[in-house]
Specification:
- This protein has 459 residues and is an alpha/beta fold.
- The protein is built from 20 helices and 14 strands.
- The chain is globular.
Length: 459
């Protein structure tokens, strides 16, 4: 790797680390802690790639990007930020960034991205309006990947299939795609096909003799979101495919979502293969809450703020209470957490929600929840279904390396958490219950960042 890289960040230590890494990789580096110097170097023709933080002492770097691109349209700009929200990722894309990297990041991934930028011509993107805030919350690595995909899709009309369990936020993602797209002034129409009688779906979507204007017509110029598209009858699938083929997707952008492995449904003849490929041009997988536990504090505070905006009492929450929320298994994902937080704002008399309140309400929450699944399903079947869906989202490619450790970690954490709850936090009994050495259990608790709480037994 060669060339001159301009690094702009107000944190001296970050400038030093990046400068040293780039120098070792064979690059010449110029580093600054302000935007005025960055702009001066751009005007002087310095640099083959820019790497810049967003918030600088003398302004917002994203506001400067359109000027840089107008001055030097072939200069790739990599934006990095600790403000790891979907708004930041989309604003970076709209402003014309070559790519976006959330902090903290892996140095090898950073160097690979810079190397790619030095070899690839910069795509010119017209800057749009930025700063919209949407309820897509989370700074975890898995959510950062979702943000990066969304940022690349906002200026396209490609078909998008959103995969995710109930409560993971599929409709919010669809609304985000619409709200940051050129179609945002047109309607966003959503239909939950799982909640619509099968014999009504075709009429709801495409109208009838009594009501010729269905939802497809209502979404003209905008976005039609088909939630739980796997529940669409074959006749309606054929009608939708014919409409999409005739219209070419120009009149309406169709975004779909599913909880299931559609390729399995295709193999079983329950979903049309040609429609699947039409809708699944770009798949987005939304992680379950158990895969993004580090996002729970941000989510909880966000839901408290939203509850107050809706007229519920204003509450704050202690760090200890947030730790308890992180240790709970949220089977209903983000939606379950949101409903729990709203309930707390009504039932908690204090202005600050503490750990004792969380413990009490979580215990009541578990008692009110479903005691038994409606159908027995072996764990292996659940894991197999999850893996099939995971592999289906990497059509034509393999998933990233480390799949074994990823899956084992997902199973280990809830297994150890529930075992600790069952024994009231007694590690000796938990180790005996699991059939492992106590030292091994302690190591796992430390590695998986599991909080051990002494409490009444679950069973």
């Amino acid at each position: 790797m060669d060339g001159t890289i301009i690094v702009a960040d107000d944190d001296r230590s970050i400038r030093t680390v990046l400068s040293q890494a780039l120098t070792r990789a064979g690059c010449r580096v110029r580093a600054t802690g302000n935007l005025s110097t960055l702009w001066k170097w751009v005007e002087e023709g310095e640099g083959d790639v820019i790497v810049t933080d967003v918030m600088m002492p003398d302004g917002d770097a994203l506001d400067l990007l359109p000027r840089i691109i107008k001055k030097r349209p072939d200069l790739p700009i990599i934006v990095m930020s600790a403000q790891n929200t979907v708004t930041t990722a989309v604003r970076a894309s709209e402003a014309g960034a070559f790519d976006y990297m959330p902090k903290p990041f892996d140095l090898s991934a950073f160097l690979a991205l810079v190397n790619k930028a030095t070899k690839q011509a910069h795509p010119t993107i017209i800057a749009g309006e930025g700063g919209e805030r949407l309820p897509l919350v989370g700074r975890s690595p898995m959510m950062q990947e979702v943000y990066r995909v969304l940022a690349r899709l906002t200026h396209t009309d490609l078909g998008v299939m959103i995969f995710g369990d109930s409560g993971t936020g599929k409709e919010i993602v669809a609304r985000t795609l619409h709200s940051f797209s050129p179609r945002k002034a047109a309607p966003f129409i959503s239909i939950n096909l799982a909640a619509t009688p099968p014999d009504m779906i075709e009429r709801e979507l495409f109208g009838s003799s009594d009501n010729p204007n269905g939802l497809y017509v209502a979404a003209f110029g905008g976005t039609l979101f088909l939630d739980n598209v796997d529940d669409m009858p074959l006749e309606a699938q054929m009608r939708l495919l014919r409409v999409l083929q005739e219209q070419g997707g120009d009149d309406v952008r169709v975004v779909a979502s599913t909880r299931h492995d559609l390729q399995t449904l295709v193999a079983e003849g329950r979903f049309r293969e040609d429609l699947f490929f039409r809708l699944n041009v770009v798949p987005i997988r939304l992680p379950r809450l158990v895969e993004r536990l580090e996002d729970i504090p941000d989510l909880a505070r966000h839901f408290l703020t939203e509850a107050a905006k809706g007229g519920l009492p204003q509450k704050t929450i202690t760090p200890e209470a947030l730790d308890h929320l992180r240790s709970h298994i949220w089977g209903g994902n983000v939606r379950e957490l949101e409903n729990f937080i709203k309930r707390l704002t009504v039932l908690c008399p204090e202005e600050e929600i503490g750990a004792s309140i969380i413990r009490r309400e979580l215990a009541a929450h578990m008692e009110l929840g479903p005691k038994e699944p409606q159908r027995e399903q072996r764990l292996s079947a659940s894991v197999e279904a999850h893996l099939k869906q995971y592999f289906s989202q990497h059509t034509g490619t393999l998933p990233p390396p480390g799949l074994y450790d990823k899956i084992i970690r997902e199973v280990e954490r809830p297994l150890i958490q529930l075992s600790l709850q069952a024994t009231g936090g007694n590690q000796l009994k938990t180790a005996d219950l699991l059939g492992i050495n106590r030292n091994t259990l302690r190591k796992k608790i430390r590695e998986l960042d599991i909080e051990v709480l002494r409490s009444k037994k679950m069973m």
